[in-house]
Fold:
Amino acid sequence: MQVLNSCPCGAIDKAINVKGSNMGSQGKKRGAKSSTASQMLSYRDCCQLLHEGQPAHSAEALMRSRYTAYALGLRDYLIHSWHPDYCPATLTLPIETKWRQLIINSQREQGDEGEVSFTAIYSQHDRWYRLEEASRFKKYHQHWKYTDGDAQWLEWQPGQNQPCPCGSGKKFKRCCK
Ligand SMILES: [Zn+2]
Ligand SMILES: [Zn+2]
Structure:
């Protein structure tokens, strides 16, 4: 099993960002590094909990865990987190797809329904794409499940001097190009 430092979903450790409150001492325990990478939650403290059965506390958390499941090829989790009325009979994950970055654009919840709009950046071989999706979620036996979404797949080229979409902090041309 691959050891992952930061969670593929890109969630930030909010405890580290809170300064001057009683959360501060907790932040220090986790280490005093200040780079972006050190503020990111580890996979173990983030989506792995959901992958191992902890219920998602929000539609957004479920969405993040599904993105991470795509990134890690966890097919069973994708089926498990899919509302049974909507889940496809077969699900194949193309192995050449590399999921690079998740950006949550907006999310809202009302009662047992939720919607999360996101951009997911991925590559296949040396071509890059953006998936723009408004995903819908419903509670099923009190747990958030994905139903369906409106998605658009756009071919896309990261800028050579832009920060690499993989989140390394390096310029694209010096990293995943
Ligand atoms: Zn995560
Ligand atoms: Zn990169």
User: Anything to note?
Assistant: Residues 101 and 170 are 14 Å apart (CA to CA).
